[in-house]
Amino acid sequence: MTPEGRVKEKVKKLLRSYGVYWHMPVQNGMGAPSLDFICCAKGWYLAIETKAPGGVPTPRQMATCKQITDAEGLAIVVRDEHDLAALETTLNLKGCKRAV
Description:
By secondary structure, this protein is of the alpha+beta class. 40% of the residues lie in helices and 20% in strands. The protein has helices spanning 3-17, 59-70, 81-93, and strands at 21-23, 37-41, 44-50, 74-78.
């Protein structure tokens, strides 16, 4: 598994543990660009771009993040354990509860 693939698996595990709805759009070059994960949690829109540790989003991905935040959604980049912890903190602040 690639380093980015390992980050994606950690994000999936975290989202599942909070009962967040998510899907991963398949990008084929047609239509509007998207990020790796599109989520709905407690009525709010969240998009997540995953990168290998140390990776950075492309200019197109950053433009997509800006479109999402301009529309009052939340866009997060997750690269490592620190970013994953920030995502979990955000889920908690938005009122999501970890499933038992």
